[in-house]
Predict the structure of Transcriptional regulator, AraC family.
Amino acid sequence: MVRQNMHQQVELEYLKTDQCPLGDRQYSFFEMVYLISGKGTVCINGNRMAYRDGNLLLLTPNDRHIFEITEVTEFLLIRFSDSYIRSYPWKSIHHLECLLFYATHLSGCVMRCKDDSRLVEMIVDSLLFGMKLGGVYQQDLDMNLVNALIVIAARNISKVRPENVRTNTDKRILQIINHIERHIFVPDQLTAAAISQAFGISQAYLGVYFKKQCGETIQQFIASYRIRLIEWRLKFSDLRINELADEFGFADGSHLNKFFKKQKGMSLTGYRQRLL
């Protein structure tokens, strides 16, 4: 596996290749991958899905990924550091880094809005044109275009977060949510006792505080978040039920199916068949 680091806060690279597979890579930075053309499969953190032109992927620090190319593919690779996200004065999106880190659980195209997809295509065309043109102020223009892509990606990622969570909510709640998102596959870290201990607050206060800020109990939030990720896997991966159960910390496929049916009113198989 190749591990790569950045030398600048923001870097752009155009790549056209038929190499199969394209690396087994792990980064210490964020990378947005725009698929200009081509077909194949991408595997992110063990989750496989087909890619096609127009897809925008967001790889977060420490994600492992590999592209298996079946048709010559053109990529625009946009890399930026987490320190860049923390230092840039974003005006309307609070805790942007936490939001972007959520993409590590999505493992696929982050775009949910067709209008935003068209906007991304225009921005990518502008970046590609600028890479050919060069000249004075081009770097400044590129930075602003990259910032626009980051905000668009964050806006689309936010559409799959639980609805009751506001992006401008209390900072400690965002830290608790970040803890839940990072440990969603480790049930022992998601108990009220474990979360209370991690943040130095009592279990009784944690329950009241979380519900006041988010409009639902912490266990409802965890269940909703887990369901959203399971739905994502069912839509965009070919994992078997027992593999999903193992990934999300369930004893077996039967326990996972019971949990899913309670939340969604249908079986995992029924949900997946409905997508066909």
In short: Strands lie at 2-4, 10-17, 22-27, 30-44, 47-51, 56-59, 64-80.
